[in-house]
Amino acid sequence: MFFLFAWRNVWRNPSRTAGLVLSLALSVAGLWALGALVRGLNEQRLKERLQTSLGHLKLTSPRFLSHKPLQAYWLFDSLARQKVTAMPIISAYAPRLNVRASMQKGRQGYMLDVYGVQPTIEKSVLSLFAHVRQGAYLTKKSRQEAVIGKELARASGLRVGDSLLLSLPAPLKVCVVGVYDVPNLDFSKTHIFVPYETLRTALALPADACHQLLLKIQDANQTKEAQNSLKKAFPTLWVRTWQETAPDLAYIHTLTSFFLAVLVLVVSCLLGALQYILLQMNWQERLIEWQRLRAWGLTQGELWRVWAMEVLLMLAVGLLAGSAIGGSVLWILSQKGIDLAWFADGLGKMGYATQVLPVVLWQDWAMIVAFFALLPCLQVAWKFK
Fold first, then answer.
1. CA separation (Å) from 132 to 150, 315, 339, 377?
2. Residue range 374-384: mean pLDDT, rounded
């Protein structure tokens, strides 16, 4: 009886009820979508770095970590390969050479990180090849080829087909065959990739020489477990997770996730306070109606149950509508993402992509429901008991 009475009473003034329900629905949908987009921006930055440069784990000689000396290599021979492939947690690996070099273009000099990679193996760990926007990735047609970043090409004026001279212990002349474009502008300006054998021959290093071994694991949450296994297999090498290789990235990712949760909580509480005020005003506007119901014989407890039922009904309708609107918006955005190209320069300098896909966490939705909708509504219902 109370349910039907409350339901009819809710829609007795359609405009008033529609305003309350609409404010609740749009606030839930907007806050949920905003949180998902900001979280997506944060997660995409991490994903881009892991897939273009870091990998999940990295093996290096202890001497290599300081100034990347040329002789700080180790041999990734058949025995080392057997140790790595015997670990089921590791899905792919890519040995690399890495040295510092300089390049002179006109009056401008550039300090570069030169990587010697094996294109086929490299593709199983990183997806840098998918970011080549001009020319092609290392093609194997010529050993003297290189792939450079878009920022380096823009700063130096280099184009596909141009030659460049790298100052190594012995000069190395290569031809630009491709230009890649990644959100991290500093990376794009300083990192150049050449075939492994080309760099190994230029540096006069032995076969199977390796400065760093990048590893990809099946589950990104098992990096610590994989690190412990690799330390036992390679006790003389340093095994570092991506958090240790790029502590700034790990710190920013953790800090952003924390502040996003705090932001959702604070905004939910502020909107909850507004919702509380609106419901309280609704109660005050209906004092004559409540007095009429008391005159008809409803007790204080029955009157409170009617009001509580009304509040819960408005809450249910608002949350369902808000969840439907927010879920629809997030589903549409998850198909193509949202283009933030007008912020391209600022986002690129911070390593963010301009095409963002939302990351939906039900914890955000639950926090919004609890602090924005449920608690204020129940508080109002309880206050007028």
1. 9, 50, 20, 54
2. 62
